[in-house]
Design brief:
Elements: E1 3-11, H1 15-21, E2 36-39, H2 50-64, E3 80-84, E4 92-99
Length: 102
């Protein structure tokens, strides 16, 4: 099984939506720009957000089993994917890419 590196590439905040619709939440997102995680197989990495894992895990599973080329050539690197979490107030974009075992 291949390993997959997940890198936090972008973090957005929509304060106007939060003010209008969201109840205040302490520490809603603990991700840091540039933070990386390595998936050993299809296991969620320690410290990775549960909600974000729900969004990225199907792509991680495919990549760990040697698949890729999502959506017929969507990514320049067919063994990668750019996936965002499902938080509509502060979405985080993750780059998933297979890495070689050392």
């Amino acid at each position: 099984m291949k390993k997959v590196r997940i890198t936090v590439k972008r973090m957005a905040r929509y304060d106007d939506l939060s003010e209008q619709y969201e109840n205040p939440i302490q520490h809603a997102c603990e991700m840091q720009l540039g933070q990386t995680f390595v998936c050993n197989g299809w296991e969620k990495p320690t410290g990775f957000c549960d909600s974000a894992w729900e969004a990225v895990s199907p792509f991680v599973m495919t990549l760990t089993h040697g698949g890729g080329d999502f959506y017929d050539g969507w990514m320049k690197n067919p063994h990668s994917a750019m996936i965002s979490c499902n938080d509509g107030f502060r979405p985080v974009s993750f780059l998933l890419e297979t890495i070689e075992d050392n």
